[in-house]
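=== RUN LOG ===
request id: a7f3
mode: sequence -> structure
chains: 1
length: 329
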Amino acid sequence: MPTQLQFAREGKITDEMAYVAEQEELTPEEVRDLIAMGHLVIPKNINHDFAPRAIGRKTKTKVNANIGISSDHGSIEEELEKLKVAIDFGSDSVMDLSSGYQDLDGIRQAVIDNSSIMVGTVPIYGAMSDNIMQGKGFRDFTARRLLDEIEKQGQQGVDYITVHCGITRQTLKYVDGRQRIVGIVSKGGSVHAAWMRATGNENPLYEYFDELCEIAAKYDMTFSLGDSLRPGGTGDATDAAQVQELLILGELVKRAWDKGVQVMVEGPGHVPLDQIAANVKLQKQICHGAPFYVLGPLTIDTGAGYDHITGAIGGAVCSAAGADMLCYV
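=== RESULT ===
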């Protein structure tokens, strides 16, 4: 079955396109054309039935809420309660970031089955957690294991996946041996970096990107290209590591589009207030107008509470500058 992107490029208007057009006060033709250009995505797995939402140009800024169990705390019942609260308070999306738990598949399926909004995941969490639970290390982890995890999550009904494809052996050089204040703060990025250092191999998501695209297209899972090297401190904002990864992500956006896969791009982490608009413009230019899924941005390195206030300020400025979806814990 064709993806939303493939339908759009064939000039066809799907039921999902017609629905989001009404919700966003656009014409179905506008939605179709924006999707065909890659400037709009409708993350909706063919195995997940819910009222879709559009992310991208000419649409309202969307909000994602993170949930997830860990080895230290949580239960399925608690995660489903978090899901209900997120939906009741108007979240457009939820990401299940569960890790370090025996039955991650069961947690994920329960979230998908009970979610009336789009569900995203970070597949490396599930794959590596399973590896660790079996007492194995980085050297025991394989590209096949990660691709099989992504296939399984596609079958379950995950609508979009964060995949850290842009951290490669080459981009890692912009962190190792360089004076980056905070290093790598992305959990998924850190796992990929540790795996590359331990094995000497290339990031499997980059090396096998075409196969990754084939899996995603099968279920119409949208890529959220992860920002492994996002700045974890304002002093690292817009540095060489961040920009080098962004350049690779820009290339991968076009490769994914060629395979019929919808794409959004993540960023930018900790960014001073006066650099936020420039970061949005830079991402849009390098990534060919793909929707921008913003983590933060946090405008200072220390703030009241759990960064809620600084995140809200950064998110508001980022939205005004053209960000398409905001992520909040």
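=== NOTES ===
The longest strand covers residues 263-270.
Residues 69 and 206 are 28 Å apart (CA to CA).
=== END ===
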